[in-house]
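Researcher: Good morning. I'm working through a list of sequences from a screen, and I'd like to move beyond sequence-only analysis. For each chain I'm collecting a predicted structure so we can compare shapes side by side. This is the next one on the list. No need for commentary yet; just the structure.
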Amino acid sequence: MNEDRTTQTKAKAPMGNDLMFTKEVSEEIRVPEATLRWWRHMGKGPRSFLLGAKRVVYKRADVDAWVEEQYQAGARESA
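Model: Good morning. Structure tokens for this chain:
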């Protein structure tokens, strides 16, 4: 019976795959985790938030938007 509840809970959580932890973002955008932590401290980098008391998470859409902003800024500078 516990197995069924777990399966049902996972099926009802559409946001689950949209949340990324620091390690996942680090791997995706190819920067060290320490850099992401520094950017967070400085108010730079992809938008993030605390999940619970301590867990830093990122929405995939926010990471993608930040990467696109970086691309656009670089494209403007080189034009």
